[in-house]
Every structure is written in structure tokens, then in C-alpha cells.
# Entry
Amino acid sequence: MKNRIITSIIGIPIIFISIIWNIVGLLILCSIIGLIASYEINKMLPKNKITTSSEKIIFINILLVTFLPLILSIFIINEINASSDILFSIYLTFVSLAILIFVRAFTYKNQRFRNIGFWKFWIYVTFIGFGIAHFPLLYNHESRGPNLTIMIIALTFTFDIFALFVGKRFGKTKIFPSISPNKSLEGYIGGFLSLFPMLFLLQIIFDISSSFLTFFIVIIIISFSSLLGDLYESYIKRLAKIKDSGSIIPGHGGILDRTDSILSNIIVFYWIVIWLKI
# Structure
């Protein structure tokens, strides 16, 4: 717990400074996350003692599916508001091509996928890439994009921190013990309630007004999305038979362990902003 707190004290300001700097700082941060995430995802698959050509191609495919959405979102960043579904169509096209190349090169019975499963693994990789790609999209959303980006990250951190501490102190009712034994209903409620004062405070700081209904919808969806993102990564790790995705962040594990909720939240929050016109 001590390492977790120290890492958060150091890491959170770095993240916010990168975002406040300008979009270049955000893109550098996204690229670093994508690169480390690709490495951690690749490590989930068992390897031979000697790296084979098939393992190299698998890693290249992981990099493609992780980074292509980010690259595409940068290129279409000025057009996304005019045609909000263009990212989906372009992204799905490239992901389909990457999967097609992969399937053509290997059979479904490739031994590297015996724990996770081919499609479960590839859907997870697609989710990671899709989440990272939404950061520049939200950041570039009108004049308040940077503020909205900081807002969703702050809300996610708030939910995670309160869910953790309340869950450790009062957690008795397990939600999905077979996937994540530490997740409790009490922790979720603690995280959910913490979003009310935090969102209210952030709206005042960034001068963002919204109706109570919009306010409540954001909190419900973000809290639920945070939980699902965390559970999804826990599910993949359980299939891969690992405890943490990595060890690069002391007290937190790997980059995927720290960004699981953020990646799911950035996707849903971006579309909340678009659809509800926040």
C-alpha cells in the first residue's frame, strides 16, 4: 500500500502536466502507454525458450492493433466531429485486415493461445487500442477538450481510490469472486458516492454546466464502466494465469493494471460528451 501511495503521488501530477502541456504531451503519453501495453499483452502468451518467427509476427500484430487506432485518430482528429462514425469504420477495417493477416499466418490451434483463446485475446487487444485512440479525440473536442480529458481521468482515479479504501475497510459482499476476489459491493458503492462531490467540484473548476439528469447519467455510467474495465482485465489475467500484467509501476503492477478503468471510461465518456453535448 505504501508503494502504491508513493507512486500515485509522483505519477498523477506527471499525467496531468503532460495533458495540460498540449496535445503533443498527451500523444507522447499515449504512445508510451501503447508501447508498454503491447509488451505486457505479448507477455501474457506463453513463449518458447527460443523466439520463433511466429512469435515475432504475433507481437507485430499486437503493435499494429494497438497503435493503428491512435494514428488514425490523429489523422482524422479535425473531421471526427463532422462525421462521428468515421473512426469506427476506418478502425474496424484496419483491425479486420490485421486479424486476417494473423489468421492467414497461423491456425486457431496455435499453442500460444491455449490459455486465453484466440478471439478473447484479440478482442482484448482491440479494446486497448480503441481506448488509447479516444484520448486525442476527447482532447481535441472543441475548446474544452483538455478540461474534459483531465475530468475523466480525475473521476476514474477518484472512483478507484475510494473503491479500494472502502472495499478494504468494509468490503464483505463479493461481486465476482471468481474473476476478482477483492472487488466488493461496498467498495463499488464507496467509489460511486465519491464521484458526486468530485464531479461537482470539477464542474465548478472548469466552468462546465449540466442538468442534474446529465450529471447523474455521467456518474452512473462512469462508475459502471470503471468496474467493467477492471473486471475485464482481471478476467484476461485469470485466463493467462498471471496476477499482474507487469511490474513497471510499483504498488500497481503493470501499465494495464493501472489503465484498465481509464481506457473503458475514456471511450464511454467521449460518446457521452458527443451525444449529450456536454
Remarks:
- The first helix runs from residue 2 to 21.
- The chain has a mean pLDDT of 80.
- The two ends are 36 Å apart (CA to CA).
- The chain has one domain: 2-276.
